[in-house]
Give the backbone structure.
Amino acid sequence: MLLEVKDLDVRYGRNHAVKEMNLSVDENEIVTVLGANGAGKSSLLKALHGLVSIQGGTVSFDGNDITRASSAERVQNNLALVPEGRQILVSMTVHENLLLGGYRRQGKDLLSDIDSIYERFPNLGARSGAQASVLSGGEQQMLAISRALVAKPRLIMLDEPSLGLSPILVDQLFELIKTLNKEGIAILLVEQNTKKALEVATRGYVMELGSVVLKGLSGALAEDAGLVHAYLGAQS
Ligand code: ATP
């Protein structure tokens, strides 16, 4: 397994956000984590990226224990996070945002990788010198994903990437997720668009109040839509 999470615990004071969670993502796999608001999905991803502290359990990536590694070390280990709400630096240019994504790398390789990002996303290329604030919501999401790509990840964790996007952009986003996966990047996808997420993922986990309440192959979860929706409530 590329990513292996065992008995992971995340607490904020008395609030037990993630409870003894077990999860794995294999090389080249797309795995989705579903759940209603407050189920603990973002806390899981933040803990996996070293942004909130882990109170129990272990995280291993590519065979190395990274439970106590810093965010920067995780990026260097090729584990990237595209956070909820994108969190790009809107007062900086598109190009500066991409340079920041590769701050652990240097030299011409980085610039040529950024050039290939501009080829892949011509809208970003056309606005490379513009402040990121002028980008549309969809372009900002592309920038957030591109910033993660610059670090040359083997696994990208995406936190609700389709949030706030129009249906056409949502379709494009899911196509991009499939393409990145075909290029060899494993994906851990937190989504509120259950249908789309189960279409692209191999396997899924459903969380409720910090615990995994359902898991399995996406096809089986999609067939069990009634049960999945019961856990997701009005959101699905
Ligand atoms: P959403 O889709 O709304 O982001 P989620 O499934 O990602 O939901 P989390 O954001 O991980 O859920 O929240 C899990 C629990 O932890 C919730 O009860 C939330 O209120 C709590 N929580 C999240 N962040 C913090 C924090 N910084 N301090 C205290 N409690 C927090």
User: Anything to note?
Assistant: The chain has two domains: 3-78+154-235, 88-152. The pocket of adenosine-5'-triphosphate is lined by residues 12, 15, 17, 35, 37-43, 84 (CB under 6 Å). The chain has a mean pLDDT of 91.
